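INPUT
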Amino acid sequence: MSNFLSSSIGKKLIMSLSGLFLVVFLLVHLSINLLILFDSTGGLYNEAVHFMGTNPLIKVMEPVLAIGFIVHIVYATILTLQNQKATPTKYNVTQKTKTFSWASKNMYILGFAVLAFLVLHIIQFYVKMKITDTAPIVEATGGHDGYKLVTDLFTQHGTLSYVYCAVYVLAGILLGLHIRHGFWSAFQTIGWNNYTWKSRLFTLATIFAWVIAIGYSILPLYMTFFL
Amino acid sequence: MADKILKKLYIKVWRQKNANTKGKFETYEIENISQGSSFLEMMDIMNESLVAKGIEPVAFDHDCREGICGMCSLYINGRAHGPDTEITTCQLHMRRFEDGETITIEPWRVGAFPVIKDLIVDRRSYDKILHAGGYINVNTLGNLPDANNILIPYEDYEEAMDAAACIGCGACAASCKNSSAMLFVAAKVSHLAKLPQGQVERENRAKAMVAKMDELGFGNCTNTGACEAECPKSISIAHIARLNREFLSAKIKD
Amino acid sequence: MAILDAKIPEGPLAQKWTNHKAKIKVVSPANKKKLDIIVVGTGLAGGAAAASLANLGYNVKAFCYQDSARRAHSIAAQGGINAAKNYQNDNDSIFRLFYDTIKGGDYRGREANTYRLAEVSPAIIDQCVAQGVPFAREYGGTLANRSFGGVLVSRTFYARGQTGQQLLLGAYAAMNREIGRGHIKMYDRQEMMEVVIENGKAVGIITRNLVTGELERHGGHAVLVATGGYGNVFFLSTNAMGCNGGAAMRIYKKGAHFANPCFVQIHPTCIPVHGDQQSKLTLMSESLRNDGRVWVPKKKEDAEKLRRGEMKATDIPEEDRDFYLERRYPSYGNLVPRDVASRAAKERCDAGYGVNDTGQAVFLDFKYAIDEYGLDVIKARYGNLFQMYEKITDVDPYEYPMMIYPAIHYTMGGVWVDYNLMTTVPGLYCLGEANFSDHGANRLGASALMQGLADGYFVIPYTVGDYLADEIQTPTPDVNSAAFLQAEEETKARIEKLFSINGTQTVDHFHKELGHIMWEYVGMARNEAGLKTAIEKIQKLRKEFWSDLRIPGDKTGMNTELEKAVRVAEFIDLGELMAYDALNRNESCGGHYREESVTEDGEAKRDDENFAYGAVWEYTGEGKEPILHKEEFKFENVKLTQRSYK
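OUTPUT
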């Protein structure tokens, strides 16, 4: 494995594996979110929040997840800087070559947009629950009332709630775009692609991207407009 | 089937005296170009008219003019090998252009392909990648087993040939926003990895060629698919997946 | 005629090469390391030679004018490579391949060389397969073959329509291996300007670095010229734009004799000229004639309507189509050799049956093959060629017949070499299309690749040792010696002279003019009066060239106009030499058709009594008539018959 990480393909493998790891997190997060749709009292959701907040495995995974994010971002930055350096002079005419998707050429920007949202999201939830401990409490269990935190955000801030909703929906869409390219790309980089699987991976990635985009958008829309 | 005549065209072209000087765009007007002419014939006519005016003609690479030698390059109106698919610049015809149009021609913009003059770039870094391992180590002195002793399934031959069709023109790196040479390297690695003859050295080949590619300063592949779209031989990025596979499985054993 | 010793080995034909190899000298591995060999040109012959010699242990310096060795014009060969493997069990053999080649060449080649070519051909396929050349396969995994013009067996190996490319990339890969190991030093974007001769031996070359414009001196114990053919004398040809006869002409002017320059092959299946803006002709593979049927309208009025665009080919009923090749040559039909097919097309067009708006084209129709085998089969066989045709002409050949017309394609003539491929200058060799030896007056399809690789992989590695064994004591030639300095000075003066003309016309103007003269008078049909006119016109053109040429830009740095001017200066001299040769050869044979020598039904008529020789020309000075030497061809193994494909 000597010089593995300094090779271009090695670095891309790191991107690919960390990306797939983050995708797993997104799926877990999404399934918990969607619990709200099945129980509008928020009980089910709060149980899940409680579980996530107390389960030792999840506690262990928390820093791992953070490292996953950091690795993904750091390597994206290294690769992007190298790529910039590899093309010192840009073309005068904008490129008209058809690429697989707009996202494929703008992954770094998309990634940063998602990261910006993530910061907002952490401030609005994680910080309140885990650091300042200012989140509301469910009296029965003594655990955090994540449900109230969420519903307040999208219903109790007047016009600002609509803005939050828009931001969250936009983030869902950007994430979907990021994943539309990232998901199949991860497999391509690992080497799992060929003539037959190329179109299959595209289809899978498209479906998955829609699931993520719609999945993450449903909740804010539901809360803002239907609660 | 007489072809239409393009009465006037404006050719905006990159001029650069040599590698050490700064270049700039110049625009030249040319008249009465038949749409049946090839793009490079249009360039020939333009150069003839420049020489007549005492201007040094625009230097551009070209040779076979049949789309196979890979010598011609040119980034035309925002696309490597111009506005058509599955062709090289020399196969591009003036049917693709309108009367009165401004055609912008730039050299390949890849850090590892420095400009030599005007539209000519130095693509020797591609050769260097192949020197590092783009071959099968076999002596060229005969006494080899009969060719039919090596049986190759038809499908494998087909896939190897798809990859082997690479002409080394550089359009993949030139159309890649990252200046990545992955499709070029993948084509050679994949061609040899698909054949029984290439098995013995497949691991070292992938490692050596990727190491050389990185060393020469090509960018990293981000799977945008631009290379595949502009490749005159339509080489699929599925070959890049095979390169990744070859490289990773070789590296894991190191 | 002592200077023309072909050094053909004794013994029966089939034993000559084996006997020769057993007798010639060998250089020891330790001494090979001390010997430098210069190889000019990196096509199949040059590339294979460079790789093989480096593999043997010599120090090789390889030169090409392109930006990479991989771009040599061998790459453009489409159809395939012949080899006497008899994989199809159709009674092919080395002798049959030899016989077909000699007969196809109209008995104007050297028996021993041609036999050797056939003899080493099976090894070429083994070599290429071992290198990873992806030849076409049958479903069972064995190698596939196709048939080609002028033969009755299937012996052509191919890789889609890109056989030349795959073979060249094979040779290039073999070179890359040696470059990687430090045995070959590669010089790209370098043009050979002069050969350096010292004490009667070739010791090096002067090159011009096409990027910096500087002249460079390179020394070696032997110099191999493998720079391909000179078809671009005609301006329009299927050759690459850069293909030139410069190196061959420089060595001719320095004492290497030039043989049969008038033997030029005109390929029958090229895309017709579209107009006067054209710079290059595109070949459509001969393999298309396997399934395509060639025809013109039977009625002149149909042809005229087609030319005026009032009618389409598909409107002409079956009975009004003249499949003239099948009509005239029932046994070979559409697969007659190239020279025969080309002349037949010209005959029809001259008689007024030509199509296209110029009247200079015939149809090549795939409707019948599509009806018989189905669209999918034809697509699989020729898909990429059809695509190429459509991109160029904007006509879909699946729907509408292709239009084709003959074009200059290959030059059988070239630098005279003996059995060892050595020219009349010791230490100076010539390989591949650049030499004259194997194809006589006409080359069969898929044989050029065979010859290039045979010369490079299997002939020169042996024969060069015979000369170099006596050179092991010779130190590497000193590039500061008087001979090198003088050669460099002369080259400098030549470039200076080109620049100092400062006239009004571009290089292409003269090149086009030369092309017109050549096509008109030294083209598909030649006669005495025309050839004399050609010589006069070329001499006049030379004067104009040297008094009215204009080269803009600088001597230093890259100057593409200067590159072209240097080449065209040689083309003019070469064109003149071709005309002299064509004038001398008052017979029709292969690609050379003299209107004075035809049978009653218009077929070419050979004159074996007076012309069964190679015309070998010695240079005597600029503008002077060259001296003719003759290498009499002795045919001991084949009977000379009038070639018939009826």
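end of record. Chain B touches chain A through 53 residues (CB under 8 Å).
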